[in-house]
What does this fold into?
Amino acid sequence: MRKVLALFAGVFVVIFVSSCSRPISSCSQTRGYLFVIGSGRPEGIVRNFIKHAEKVNSGKIVIFPMSSSEPHESGEWHVEQLKKFGAKDVEYHVLTKEESLKEGSTRILDNVGGIYFSGGDQTRLADALVGTPIHRRLLEIYENGGVIGGSSAGAAVMSEIMITGEEKREVESGHEFEIIKASNIVTEEGFGFMKTAIVDQHFVRRKRHNRLISLVAENPKLLGIGIDEGTGIIVKPDDTFEVAGGRNVIVYDATKASINIEADQTISGYNLAMHILKAGDYFDLKARRVLK
It folds into this structure.
């Protein structure tokens, strides 16, 4: 009997060790936190991001500034800003798709605590990283407790369906996204940290309701989350998020809506839910409801 118990205990230890490749201190944790910012770098939100990142592994923060048209200048500026807000170990990397595909490219992410994506054009960032070993490692880091943050374009890349900022119809400048219509909003594959929602940024300030409503109508199983400037959501491991910052977050939910898309792609719908959230409000992504 003692031999049987000893054998069982040995098997248990092997299973436990093999199932937790993270540091012992983080074995009890599943996913990390997401800091999704509509624009800018609100000091309170960024300091909170740094605080959480420094609790994971070495606490080092890596910035990817490829969304910017001047990525090296952006990377240097973001390093300076994060250090100003209290980060102790932070660096940036500018990668092309070819560099991201190279064997050993993921070594720059060894032992990191947090990843931050800068603003600009989200398609530049997605084109450089989606589908590469770096992308897969980023998802692993998040699933193992790492902290992921991004602002503006860095927020748009968080969802699996990523809004590019373009539409298919030809329009004059100043008349973009004036209609609600299916098959009009251009999307690409994002990083997929958020699989239950589509994220839009600069939302209320730039009047981007039409494009998010169009996509939610086409994808009623996904929430639409529009985050305004100077505002962010902090998504916790339990799939709830808290709103932080000075303006609003809009959530569209078509789960219980009746959506009709005509042959000409005209959309009609009934019982589409809309939530207007402010700082301090909480939302449950699984239950799809505001938490009191």
Q: What stands out?
A: The two ends are 53 Å apart (CA to CA). Residues 1-28 have pLDDT under 50 and may be disordered. The CA atoms of residues 83 and 90 lie 7 Å apart. Helices lie at 2-19, 43-53, 71-84, 97-101, 122-129, 133-143, 153-156, 209-218.
